[in-house]
Amino acid sequence: MSQGEGAGCGAAKPQDQGWAWMVLLAAVVLQGLTLGFPCCIGVFFTDLQHEFQASNSQTSWFPSIMVAVLHGGGPLCSILVKRFGCRFAVMLGGLLSGLGMVSSSFCKSMSQLYLTAGLITGLGSCFSFQAGVTVLGYYFVRWRTLANAVASTGVSLGFTVWPLLSQYLLDEMGWRNTFLIFGGILLNCCVCGAIMRPIQLASGSLPQSAKPEEPESREEEAQLSNGAFPHHPTLQPHTRRTKCFHMLQKYLAFDIFCQNKGYQIYTIGVTWMMMGFALPHVYLVPYAIHNGVEEHKAALLISIIGVINIFIRPLTGLLSGHRVFTGRRIYLFSLAVLLYGLSNFICVISAEFSVLILYCVILSIAMSGIGALTFQVLMDVVEMDRFSSALGLFTILESITLLIGPPLTGLLVDITSDFHYVFYNSSFFLISAGLFMGLSFCALEKKNKLRKASKADFLDNPSRYQYSETSTEPKAESQSPPTVEYITSI
């Protein structure tokens, strides 16, 4: 058993009761602190622009880096959890998040802010969030679906509280002191990690992460760690390449991406969608202030999205879990993406506060569907024994577009001086992604039905598909055997 497996991610004894519910409460707080935090950055957008004399594009790199690292650091977090355990990863993430925001309060340039609040805080949030989600899978078995749904309400609570708190602190003491206070608040991730105390594995049970390694893998690892074949010019690079390949295969499922059409379509669609997904969160508050809405009311818009998410997200999760939608959740997801994209046109029509409230209501409904279904759909298209590696590639690709989407749109706003392009861009990426995923999965489903029908027809009438053995030309003795073509399932 590795150190990480006995350090906080083992199967709880007993499960689904007792201390497991305290862990669930910690997970709710943890998701509010980590995933909910980036939503408040738009409150500081204008002040940071004035402080550092930065353009929209330069300022938007700060939240983009934070969100991209938060999503893209998954494989690194997986390695950390496997080696040291969930508790250590959560507490390390809390320390990094707090350190990043405290350091941000002393920044003298926007580039320093990219490093402190963007990279360090984003990486810390990634460790805390993903390790906190992982530990729920070991504390809960029977109530695992419920536990994940309840934990996700923490994101909605974060969306509600963070913007209002940010605007209040910003008015009272400025952005530097506010960032300093935020550093102390994010240190509470360490408290949440402390609640996820080390537990012993139940006798006779092993979690998926504690499966015995293959003999060849252990032998190669032993050879590498002990320095076997130190003077052999061929074997040592080969074993290193093999180990590197196994690591990539474990945490970045390129083979699944090439072979599984459903995973390929879904990953491409979500990656493209993320180019426009974060734009309203980054630019909604600056857009409202630019059009004469008071700062307090502008910050309230993000909180409205959070309040509605608290109620809609669990309902969406329960609805999508009904057996009627088994195998069809991708279409619900595509509809939510389309609704998200179409709702952006409301902001283009008018920037009055009442209209923006209507926009936030519709946006939050669509966002609840996307948030509740993202990982459920991924579980539908990928086998669970490869889910972790598929998730690693999935999060890295979406983090790339999350990183570049807001700055590119900010550059367009700088050139045109028109905030409407924020919502035009968001609508373009979301609507095209929703149509791509929905139509592609529809075509893939029809193709699979035709394939199954032809296979059933072959089994019912095999004589129709028999080929004549008679040949008009003599066969050469050295003739190669006929090529056999296999039709594999996706």
From TrEMBL:
Q: How does it sit in the membrane?
A: Multi-pass membrane protein
Q: Where is region (Disordered) located?
A: 206-235, 465-490
Per its UniProt record, what SUPFAM superfamilies does this chain match?
A: MFS general substrate transporter
Provide the protein's localization: Membrane
Gene3D superfamilies xrefs: MFS general substrate transporter like domains
Q: Which GO terms describe its molecular function?
A: monocarboxylic acid transmembrane transporter activity
Q: Which residues cross the membrane?
A: 21-45, 61-81, 88-106, 112-139, 146-165, 177-196, 265-286, 298-318, 330-350, 356-378, 390-409, 421-444
Q: Which UniProt keywords apply?
A: Membrane, Transmembrane, Transmembrane helix
Name this polypeptide is given: MOT6 protein
Q: Which organism is it from?
A: Regulus satrapa (Golden-crowned kinglet)
Q: Coding gene?
A: Slc16a5
